[in-house]
Amino acid sequence: MIERTGFVTGAELLLATEIAIAGFIFTRILTQPGHIFDWYGRWIIKLRSKIPKLADPIGYCPLCFTGQIAFWTFLYNNWGDYHVLRHVLFTSFAIFMVAVVGKIYGILKKQNARMREAPRKDY
Fold first, then answer.
1. What is d(CA 97, CA 62) in angstroms, rounded to the nearest whole number?
2. Residues 5-54: pLDDT tens digits?
3. Roughly what angle, to the nearest 10 degrees, separates helices 10-25 and 84-117?
4. Do 23 and 29 contact (CB within 8 A), yes or no?
5. Taking the mean position of all CA atoms in its chain, how far away is CA 3?
6. What is the C-alpha to C-alpha distance for residues 62 and 98, in angstroms, rounded to an integer?
7. Which in 10, 19, 34, 42 has the greatest CB count within 10 A?
């Protein structure tokens, strides 16, 4: 058995990154009009106007949603070998990574829009 310290493992960092990517894609792409979960996006927006503290962690806010998924995933995966510092670091890293993914997505989206506007050169 591997002795655990207060630091997350490389596999856990990878998992946190995967959770961040999935959380961003779900909350910011798949719930948009015309996508597979657009009904959920409409419902979340209605819920946000009534109960914002509930809507944020279940899909309105990518940081909150990802934080919830990371929090419960870590707890499930480490139930028998729980360490609070690793739990906090894992969840924090997932939240940080969803912010990074969002920033990268914004840059790529802006760059893609500029490329579409640029005149096409036929050689």
1. 11
2. 568 899 999 999 999 999 999 999 999 999 999 999 999 999 999 999 99
3. 50
4. no
5. 29
6. 7
7. 19
